Amino acid sequence: MTRALDLRETADALERYRRRAVELMGIAAVAVVLAVGAGMLPWAWTSDAVGWLGGLAVAALVFGIGAWAIGKRMRHTLGAGTWSAHAAVPVARAWGSATVVLAAPGSGEVWPLKVVAVRQRYELVRPGPDGVLWWCGDPNLGGVIAPPGGGELIWAKPVRGRAARRRIVARAEQEGLLSRPVPRSPQPAPEHVAPRPKPTRRRRGVWRWVALVAAVALGLAVYGAEQSLDDPQVDLTILSRQDGNACTVSWKDPFDGTARTGPYQCHPEQQHLGDWDTGFVVSYGPWKGDLYNAEWEGTPVDQVTDWLGGLGALGLLVGLVGGGVSRWRRRAVAPVPYADPYADPDAAARVRLDKARTGPVPTYARLAAHAGRQAVAQTGTRRRPEADVRAVPWWRVRGLRRVSALEELLVAAVGCAGAGLGVWLDVGIPAYVIGVLMAGTLLRACFRLLTTGRPVALLLARAATAPVPVVRRYALLYDPRGGTPVLVVFPAHGGPDDRPEGLIPLAPPGTSNRPRLGLPSAPTGSVELRGWLDRADNGLPIVVPWIEGRPLWPVEPYAEAGGSDFAEHLEWLAPPEEDQEEEASAS
Q: What is the dihedral of CA 200, 205, 207, 209, to 10 degrees?
């Protein structure tokens, strides 16, 4: 019997989890060093910076140590036990952590479990339309839950308190937990098991640190340039003159009122104006109190600000360009034409439980029955309809704005404007930090819009407005991992034994909280396929389905039947053991 940790996806997920814990503790250490360094500087704003950096260090350290401890428990549990598949129902709670109830296969028991994770992490393992989760551990002590495939790991522990457990179990039973079919137990193939997974090469993330250091330098330069506008002007009394324009002057310190004497570069024509002159006093940084003239002679602060600004801008550009090229090179290994705005970034690499297994392609009856089980009625779902792509430019269509990253660009632009307002109102360090982060996000969104977003949106708009549609039948299924909707296409006229012609993964048209909002109301029906004019980099056609008079935007090209992964993908969407009874009844 293999261990849960022998699954490659599980081993990789555990390594990612432990790496995040180490990164959090590293951020805490860097924040402590910066806070100590800022506290030693005589700048006016260092007290605020120390407070912000100290709070960041404490928060990162607490979360990092907690994640590291949970990672150790996960490794022990996954190394000693095996994965088992369970029917699962999430139970929402107004207060407290998210909870999920698992049904023990064959025993009739239910296990109410509390998720030890933030809400964003819990969304990665929320039971999908099939209502199945994997479990490894002891339900009385705690264990690990994961979506089918074991690619994301969350620690869960039993819910305490009899009353709370009864309420949660009662709600799960109302959702029909005990009447659900028993899911197939994970049975990985021999080559899918890695007794000792090879450690993958860790990316150091050099470009992100280059961009971060450069952004800090640029922020300090901007801060120095802004503060120099408030440097006080003082009257000087010339005590003596040396060769050239060098003078010795006295003045009243504008900060503490004491009389001071020091060198100064007088104006070239000062000898005709008497024994007085005017100058400026630095009001910030370690050079506070330095005397300088209108040409910035007498203090190095102007040169330091120029160097920080120039190197910071250059470093930020190099970091963003280098990071973009590095990311493009990594994605070029397995290109994905479109991005799902709500799916996990790794969801494109779908988990295959058994790549060696081959079997017959499922029929329309089986997939239609599976789609009917996954269908959920949408109630109280009023929303402004999407603009008609046939009558308006592409940038006015909500779905195409998401695909093109135009919405991300607009949000970043609003954030930059808000940060600029904060700088103008002299809010302090947070405004500069937020401004730098929003500027980086804006540059990234611009790069994505110009390189991939706008071209893909134009291709989809062109396909959606193609003149001649192809009518077909469809069955709407959902990926067990992430819940991405997938449209399986069948011949227009046929019976329950028809085989699929192709499939189209779709972008959820709803919101992040209700991603199914806007999908077809019926799990099966008729669809119009428009497009076939352009092809993606992998040679597959770009097709946009129209159902109920509106388009559904794809995240990948049209996958035609007959490919090497086509049968495996359908088997992943609808496991055969669960659908034998429905297929027989439909036939």
A: -170
